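Teaching soon. Got one?

===
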Amino acid sequence: HVQLVESGGGSVQAGESLRLSCVASRTYSTNCMGWFRQAPGKGREGVAAIRRSGGETWYAGSVKGRFTISQDSARNTVYLEMNSLKLEDTAVYYCVGGPSPDRSDYWGRGTQVTVS
C-alpha cells in the first residue's frame, strides 16, 4: 500500500502563489503522479500529472502556463507550483498516484486551497 500526504494548501488572494507538496511513502506502483481538484459543488478534475521516469508532464487547459508540476525523486515528493491564482482555483487538491496515466490507484486526503 502507498500513502500520499499533501501539504502546502492555504488561503491567498487572487494573483498570489502557493506550492503544494505530496510525499509518497514508497515509489512502488506510482510511476505517474498528479493532482486532481474538487471545487464546491463540482466534480473532480485533473489538474496536472508527471511521469516519474522520463519526466513528461500534462496540464489541464485551465492551469497551463500558471501551474508547474515537478518532482524530487530523492525525496519521493511531487510539487505543484501554482502562480497567478484565480478565484476559480479554489478547491480541495488531491495528490494521486498510479503505475500508468490511466490509473489513479492511490489518493491523498486532500489539502484546501482558497483564493479570494
Observations:
- The mean pLDDT is 95.
